[in-house]
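task queued by scheduler; priority normal; single chain, no ligands, no partner chains; default sampling; output format set to C-alpha cells
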Amino acid sequence: MLNTKEHYDLMAAFEQQHSGRFDKEEKALWPKGVIYQDGHVNELFLAFRRGYAYAKDTAYGAGFHDGEDKGFRSGYSDALDDVQQKLEGSIDAAIRALQGEPHEH
C-alpha cells in the first residue's frame, strides 16, 4: 500500500483531521512504519491506518467492494453504519490511549 494513491489519500485525510508536525521521514523508512518525523504523530497515523485497514477488510467481507452493483449499499446500509460506528469508537479509543487520556467504557 505504501507509495500508492490510496496511501497518499489516507495521509491527506489524516492530516486534515489531526494537528501536529507532519514532516515526513525518508521513504526508505516507510516500510518500517516510520512515516512522520514526530513520533507521536507517527503513532497516531499508524493507529489511523490500522483502523482504515480494519474498516476496509470488514467492509470487503460484508460485500462492500469495488465492482459490485452500485445498488448494493441500500441493502447493507444499516450493517455498514454499524461497522463505521464501531470503527470510529475503536479509533477514538486508540487515539485517547496514545494521548494518555482515560479509557471510556
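post-processing summary
- The helical segments are 5-17, 39-61, 72-98.
- The chain has a mean pLDDT of 79.
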